[in-house]
Amino acid sequence: MTESTRPAGWYPDPWGTEHERYFDGASWARTTRPTGSPGDAAPRASGAADLVDPVATLGEADAGMLSAPPATAPGPPTDAVPGTTPPGWHRDPWGLAATRWWDGNQWTGYVSGPPAGAVGVPNVQSEKSLAARLRPALLVGGVAQAVALVGSVDQAQWIVDHWDALTRPSGGQVPEMPATTSTSLAQFGALVGFAVAILFLVWFHRAASTAWASGLPARRSPLLATLSFIIPVLNLWWPYQATLDMVPADDPGRVLIRWWWVAWLSGTLCGVLVYPAAAVFDEVAARVVAAVGALAMLLAAFAARSVVEHVTSTHDHLNAAAV
Questions:
Q1: 89 CB burial (10 A radius; 0-12, 13-18, 19+)
Q2: Cα 170 from chain centroid?
Q3: CB-based contact 99:89 (threshold 8 Å)
Q4: What percent of the chain has pLDDT over 90?
Q5: Considering Cα of 163, then 166, then 172, then 178, what sign does the dihedral take?
Q6: Nearest to 44 by CA among 34, 36, 54
Q7: CA–CA gap between residue 200 and residue 247 (Å, rounded)
Q8: Can you give the pTM of this predicted structure?
Q9: For the segment 84-133, what is each residue's pLDDT rounded down to a tens digit?
């Protein structure tokens, strides 16, 4: 059964929860009900709108959280402006449906009609193929990044020791850093880490595209989510948000994503602080910072491997349940 032929009704949740989720004939609602609930509890409908009754689909504690829309067909899509737009049907900001109900303060799970443009077909097999190659590569990349970080201490200390000669060369002669085993390992580790990072970004775009096509709400398009890794400042949290968007909101694997991001940021920060530590303090302080960063990089590599495995298996489950 495909989405284009599936009749409206309650089905096992394709987003991976233990509840049932309502399909309105065009898209999945964001509200659920306990599996095996008595009665059909079909959403009210009028014209083009198929609406989910929040009291029937949410627990009593959550029943007042959504403002139920009236059983009227939505008009032409418009954009809602927070603080100025009254409750009504407006263009779905996530692009997962034609219109979504705005309760005056926030977007709800009520949707109606297919999106204006085709989202695409989930390509889980391509994602799984990339993940199979990426998981072992991440371990190699983690070790390479740790080696590069430790080896960068000698380079940082040499720059500190020769700072005056580098910034004010005598007779136009700029000293050259001698090639050592440590610096060579650092350069080689950086190259290996860069190659693994490219493979990771390819998988990341494929995973974000699969999540987008599977109907999971996303704050940004797959391309923008992937490019956010190289956008200064925004790369501190946009990639993290994009990874969270790859799994359902109640997915327990989000804790793993958080630990991965903390470890990654910690390792990256230590890599930046190696040079100031050598300049302000001494070589010993720089080596301590590098050691902490290397450990964080290793932890991030192991966590990233688990994140890739979890996200890919989640997408495989979502699309298997939706067939």
A1: buried
A2: 51
A3: yes
A4: 40
A5: positive
A6: 54
A7: 17
A8: 0.65
A9: 678 887 777 776 666 777 888 888 777 665 565 545 667 889 999 999 99
- Give me the residue spans of the domains in the chain: 1-118, 124-322
